[in-house]
Amino acid sequence: MKLQNFLPTGHFWDNALSILNARKRLGYFPNPRKPRSFNEHILAQKWAFRGDLALASRVTDKAEVKKWLSEIGMEHLIVPTLGVYKNTWDIEAFHFEGELIAKSTHGSGEALIRTAQNGKAFSLEDLEVFRSWFSEDYYKRSREPNYKGLSKRIIVEPLLRDETGNPPKDFKFFCADGEPFAVQVDHGRYTHHTRQLYDTSWQLLPYSMCYDRNPVPMRKPVLLDKALEAARQLSKGFGFVRVDFYFMPSGLKLGEMTFFPGNGAERFSPAEGDAQLGRQIRKVSFTADQTAGMQKRKA
């Protein structure tokens, strides 16, 4: 178990640990009080969250976000749910069919993909994995405030497949003050993982983060404009949020909403991409502030 699970929580400790983690991984001391780089902007949101933190916690929860989508009239984005479980006994007793994926509603990154046989999808080893998920407090591990106090549950969904028969690519829209400014696309997640970043006009950017950059541009997705508009609606009211979509033959489906990608400590390649993407956040936020000011003066 990681050391941060045993250290005190609260604003000071959460931010101190986050800054030290970023220093170790990035090679420079980030300044969240005067953010310039992309990672500093992410850490700045930990220092002083911009937006409704209670709503951010709700949409972080992989089950609660679906209720929220229904409330705001965006049911078409919801991935179907096979079940939400508070313990492993209920999972073991449930009768499943077909391909499915299990995730924790309160954590990040965990997933099991299985195919049910005779109604049973999960082995005894899988149930042990679920017990470890139930025991984890992702807030203590990451110090991301939106995870604090989330109910610990497992959500099971049908496994999505695109027109090629493969699990769909997820397109991750970086948004600042309700406006998308970059799109992340991952390739070969289960083979040779590479990553691309595009601007909103679908121009491939000359840097990547965390994984090697795939230099071959993708064709502009048919659903890009619809996804940009949906990202604007979902990100409204937050300083920064990454909105993830699956592009399906039937339309868009929401994957998740992430407020602290990489925990503010993802290395860029080349390194100057960190500063370049940070400038994009400032540009978008400055435009949003100007627009808000003009609207106030008109009112």
From TrEMBL:
InterPro entries: ATPgrasp_TupA. Pfam families: ATPgrasp_TupA. This is TupA-like ATPgrasp.
